Amino acid sequence: MQILEELAQSNQKRLAVIMAAYQNNVDAALIGLSDDDPGVRASSLSTLNKLGKLDDAMLSELLADPSSTVRRRSCEISAQYPGVSLSSVLADTDPFVVEMALWAEGEREEPTDIEIISEIASNHPESFVREAAVAALGAIGDECSLDTILHAMSDRPNVRRRAVVAMASYDNQRVTDALIEACKDRDWQVRQIAEDLLEITEGSND
After folding, report:
1. Short-list 68, 35, 64, 70, CA closest to 49
2. How many domains does the chain have?
3. How many CB atoms are located within 10 Å of the residue 169 CB?
4. Could you tell me the residue range of the domain that residue 206 belongs to?
5. Could you say which of 72, 119, 131, 185 has the lowest number of CB atoms within 10 Å?
6. Between 69 and 2, where is the model more confident?
7. 28-73, pLDDT tens digit by residue?
8. How far is it, in rounded angstroms, from Cα 10 to Cα 40?
9. Are 190 and 198 in contact (CB under 8 A)?
10. What is d(CA 39, CA 170) in angstroms, rounded to the nearest whole number?
11. How far apart (Å, rounded) are the C-alpha atoms in residues 71 and 52?
12. What is the CATH number of the domain that holds 132?
């Protein structure tokens, strides 16, 4: 019974914070940031962002929140705040936080952690995080990342698929050769993506 009461109370607080976005109630959102419930803090973060009252200092502090739920939401929103460093969360102990931080890096116009992202793409123990890192590198499209992307073609199927997609950001013979090789990959999705990209490349050269 007590658990149900606590859940109901938490939902009420979250609803109040969410509604604050529509009521332009900045004070309610700010109060929510210090709530013991991480769900309320995460909702407060989203509300402050919607109201345009979130700044770099507040977001940087929330990236170090004890709750992975709050850190992950902070990473998601950080895509809109290029002045906020994501270096700390790229080394987070929660792989889902790292995954979201990588997505945010790929969304930024001027990412600053390319070397760290490349290291994650090559060595992180979770394949879905390596996949997210390769995706981020492809979105960034920096030439120095190409070696890492090509090396990812020796990884697990989900990472190889993402690596082939990432090659679309590059246009040189090394990529063409890698795509030709990928057409022989044992994973049919890798083969299909590579074949499609080669068709596009060949069509643009006609």
Report:
1. 70
2. 1
3. 17
4. 113-206
5. 119
6. 69
7. 888 889 999 999 999 999 999 999 999 999 999 999 999 999 999 9
8. 7
9. no
10. 41
11. 19
12. 1.25.10.10
Write out the two tokens for 7: 């859940």
Residue 206 in domain: yes
What one-character DSSP code corresponds to residue 63? T
Residue with tokens 């040189």: 172
End-to-end CA distance of the chain: 70
Query: What pLDDT is attached to residue 38?
Result: 93
What amino acid is encoded at 52 in this protein?
Answer: G
Show the CA angle centred on residue 95, arms to residues 164 and 144, nearest 5°.
40
This model's pTM is above 0.85: yes
Q: Give me the half-sphere count of Cα atoms (radius 13 Å) on the Cβ side of residue 23.
A: 11
- C-beta separation of 94 from 72 below 8 A: yes
Residue 165 gets the label, from left (phi > 0), alpha (psi -120 to 50) or beta, of alpha
**CB-based contacts of 132, cutoff 8 Å, min separation 6:** 98, 99, 102, 103
Q: What is the pLDDT of residues 68-82, one digit of tens each?
A: 999 999 999 999 999
pLDDT in tens, 76-123: 999 999 999 999 999 999 999 999 999 999 999 777 899 999 999 999
